[in-house]
Amino acid sequence: MQIRNDWTREEITAIYNSPILELVYRAATVHRENHDPSEVQVCTLLSVKTGGCPEDCSYCPQAARYHTDVKVQKLMEVDEVLQAANNARESGSTRFCMGAAWREVRDNRDFDKVLEMVKGVNSMGMEVCCTLGMLTEEQANKLKDAGLYAYNHNLDTSEEHYEEIISTRTYDDRLDTLENVRKANISVCSGGIIGMGEQHEDRIGMLHTLSNLPEHPESVPVNALVPVEGTPLAEQPRVSIWEMLRMIATARIIMPKAMVRLSAGRTEMNTEEQALCFLSGANSIFAGDKLLTTPNPEIDADKQMFQTLNLKPRKSFKDQEATVKFEQIPL
Ligand code: SAM
Ligand code: DTB
Ligand code: SF4
After folding, report:
1. Are 218 and 187 in contact (CB under 8 A)?
2. Fewer CB within 10 Å: N-end or C-end of the chain?
3. pLDDT tens readout for residues 250-259
4. CA atoms within 13 A on the CB side of 101
C-alpha cells in the first residue's frame, strides 16, 4: 500500500468514527500487510533525570510547580544507566529509552554524560532512544554521532488543545524539534496522550498533523493519561478501551509502517483489552514495573500475556539473541 502524507482531516475523521468492528478489522488488515502480527516489540524506559522540571505540562508529575510524590533526582551516573540497560536487555528488551525532565537540552556536562550513555547503550546492540525535551539541530547531530537511534518528542494533543495543557512552550517549538531530529537522520518517535479532556476532534487533529509530516514518524506512542495526584489533570476519568482502540486503529491505518506503541495506561487494562489493541495494530509495549515515574504492569504479568496471546517479542534491528532470552525466562 502506498504511504500517504496528504490525508485530509475529513478522511481521518471518517476512519476514526467508523463502526468500531469495521475500524478494528480494517486496521488489522493494514497491520498484517505491513508487519508480522505475532510480534510485539518490548521496550524499557528509564528516567535518567527525574522531577524538578520548569515546564507546566498539566499531565506531568515531574513538573516542579505541582506537588506530587515524585522525588527530584539529578542526572544518573553513566555506569548505573548502563547496568539498567543491561538488565533490560537480559529480560528481552530491544529498545531502551532514557528520559530526562528537562525543558530542553543545554550544552553542558550533563549533556556530555547523556552522550556517553547513548554510546554505551548503542554498543550493547539495543535501539537507543532518548526523550530530553527540545533540541537544536546541532545537539541532534551530536546525539546521532554518539549512536542515537531514535528520539521521542510527543505532540501530545492537537494544536488547538495544546495551550490548554501546556503554556511554557508552543506547538511550533515541538514541530521544530521534530524537524531537527529528522534532519540529523534520527528515527522520529512522536505521539500523544488521550484522556486529558480533549475532544475527538483534537485526537483527529493530532493524528492529522503526524500523518502529514513530510515523513511519518517511525514510531507513534499512544498513551492513556495516567492521572497523578497533585497535577491539574489528577481527577480526569479513565479513557475507555473503545477510545484507545479508535486511536490505535486510526494511527495504524493512516501510518501503516509506523511502530504504534501501546504506552502509558496499561495497568488499567486487562489482557483482553490489550489483545484488542494488538489486533488493532499496536506492536510495542513498555515492559518493567515502572514507566518513567508511574507504575506499569509487572514483567511476569506481561510474560504471561505474551504466552496467552501467542505473541513473541520482536527482535531488535541488530540483535537477534534478545528474543530468545525473553522467551527462555521461566514464569
Ligand atoms: N521532558 C521531555 C519532554 O517533555 O519532551 C521528556 C520526558 S516527558 C515525561 C515524555 C512524555 O511522557 C510526554 O511528552 C508525555 O506525552 C508523556 N507523559 C508524561 N506524563 C504522563 C502521564 N501522566 N500520562 C501519560 N503520559 C505522560
Ligand atoms: C511516551 O509517549 N510515553 C512514555 C515515553 N514516551 C517516554 C512515557 C510515559 C510516561 C508516563 C508518566 C510517567 O511514568 O512519569
Ligand atoms: Fe517537563 Fe517533560 Fe514533564 Fe513537560 S512532560 S513537565 S517538559 S518532564
Report:
1. yes
2. C
3. 999 999 999 9
4. 25
Q: Which pTM does this prediction carry?
A: 0.95
pLDDT single digits (tens) 62-101: 999 999 999 999 999 999 999 999 999 998 999 999 999 9
Q: Give the domain extent around 233.
A: 9-309
CA distance linking residue 20 with residue 249, whole number of Å: 9
Q: How far apart are CA 206 and CA 141, in angstroms?
A: 27
71 lies in some domain: yes
Q: Cα of 273 to ligand 2 centre, how many Å?
A: 20
Q: Is residue 74 part of a domain?
A: yes
How many domains in the chain?
Answer: 1
- Specify the ligand 1 atom closest to the Cα of 231: 23
Query: Of all protein residues, whose CA lies closest to atom 3 belonging to ligand 1?
Result: 133
Task: Please state the rounded mean pLDDT for residues 163-167.
Answer: 97
The larger pLDDT score, comparing residue 290 to residue 317, is at 290
Q: Whose CA is nearest to atom 2 of ligand 2?
A: 221
With a 6 Å cutoff on the Cβ, whether 192 touches ligand 2 is no
Cα–Cα nearest to 294, from 302, 306, 303, 286? 286
Q: Report whether pLDDT(328) > 90.
A: no
DSSP secondary structure string for all residues of 187-243: EEE--EEE-SS--HHHHHHHHHHHHTSSS--SEEEEEE----TTSTTTTPPPPPHHH
Rounded distance, CA 66 to CA 209, Å?
Answer: 30
Average of per-residue pLDDT values in the chain: 95
Calculate mean pLDDT across residues 298-303.
95
**Ligand 3 pocket mutation pick from 46, 47, 67, 103 by most atoms within 8 angstroms of CB:** 103
